[in-house]
Amino acid sequence: MSNTIKLCIFAILVTLLTATPTLYRLISDVFWEPPTVFEGISLGMSRSDVIFNIGAGACSKESCKIGKVIAVLDSEEKVSHFSIKPEHIDVAFTSVEEMKAKLGDEDILSVHEDLSKRLYTYPELQISFLFDTNRFTSATIGQVVWGELPPIGEYFIAGEKICPGSDCPWDDDSQTLKPEYSDKSYADFMPI
Q: Could you report the per-residue pLDDT of 50-90, keeping only the tens digit for each?
């Protein structure tokens, strides 16, 4: 084999090896999905199955502690959500700018009344990220419901401002869901 061919093959191999970490990171960002199982506990699992797997001392009526993760139980005593601190989820971002670079624009944005906290929600991924003064402070994994960040200052769905406004689903005074919105969800505000 001629030296020119060997040199070309060597150059191609070096290029592939140096590009591999960047390519891997790009692919992992594009196809990233939040975890839905922690220490064998999954979304939808019954409280009794959680206790069977991790022990009775880890659960109350409303939640179960699974290592560093909290499994939130719904009214049927099934795991509806996981609440996670940043150090216990591999997201590779710490700021809103980095999050948006990785995941794109959020579908739902809830801004706290004092403007210091924001909840960014991605319903397709079933995950919400809470930022406090532009620092990632927690994530919630599970089926997306009406945003919860009382007292709500502003609420956006698909980039459209819902609150404050006449279509705001929350009562201004009590910060509870208005009766006419009890059978609706954020999806009713999403563009078709």
A: 999 888 778 898 999 988 899 999 999 999 999 999 888 88
Paired residues of 59 in beta bridges: 64
pTM: 0.78
How many other CB atoms sit within 10 Å of the CB of residue 177? 13
Tell me the C-alpha distance between 115 and 110, whole Å.
Answer: 10
**pLDDT for position 18:** 67
Q: Residue length, the chain? A: 192
Query: What single-letter amino acid sits at 107?
Result: D
State the sign of the Cα–Cα–Cα–Cα dihedral 95, 96, 101, 107: positive
Domain residue extents for the chain: 33-80, 85-192
Strands 135-142 and 152-157, sheet pairing: unpaired
What are the beta bridge partners of residue 156? 109, 161
CA angle 56, 60, 65 (to 5 degrees): 75
Tokens of 37: 């199982």
Residue for token digits 């200052």? 153
Cβ burial of 7 (10 Å; 0-12, 13-18, 19+) is exposed
